[in-house]
Structure formats: C-alpha cells, structure tokens
Write the structure tokens for this entry.
Amino acid sequence: MSAQPESGPVPPAPLAPTAAAQVLAQLRVSARAASWVPAFEQDWSRALEDSRHSYSLAPLHDVVRAWQARLEAAPAVDAFEASGRDDSDGVDLADALGIRR
C-alpha cells in the first residue's frame, strides 16, 4: 500500500536555472520592450527581496511564469486589439493565472 495520494494537484514543471535570463532576453527583443523590460526588472527585484526574507524560490518562479505567460499571450493580444473588439470586460492576468501577491 502506498502512502501517496492517488490524485491531487500536479506541481508545475521545474524552471531551468536560466529561465529568468531567457525571459529577459525575449522581452528585450519584443515590440513592448520599452515598458516590459523595466516592469520585469521591478517584479524581479521585488520577488528577489521576498525570496531573501522567506528563503523560498517561489516568488522568483512566480515572476518568471507570469512573464512567460505574457510573452506567450502577446500574439493573441495583438490580434485581438487589431480586430477592434471591445475589451472593457477584461480580466487581470494575475487573477487568471492565480499568481500570489
């Protein structure tokens, strides 16, 4: 008999040690670099400070995953904006991803 539960939440895949650098490199070449790079750097420094106090890498992983999601969603967002549809009923990305604040 196993002591492991049969079902439960699946933890997210582990991030590569270079994930933050890869995200930052992608942000620097994106069309939104002027606003996204400083925003990422601000999020990263805040998460780094949180990690120092909590001795946990979770805040850093949350920042990387949130920015990976933004980069992934950018083409769909661009297409939506170009379509001229109403976006007044939008949802905050942090709420949609369940990101801790």
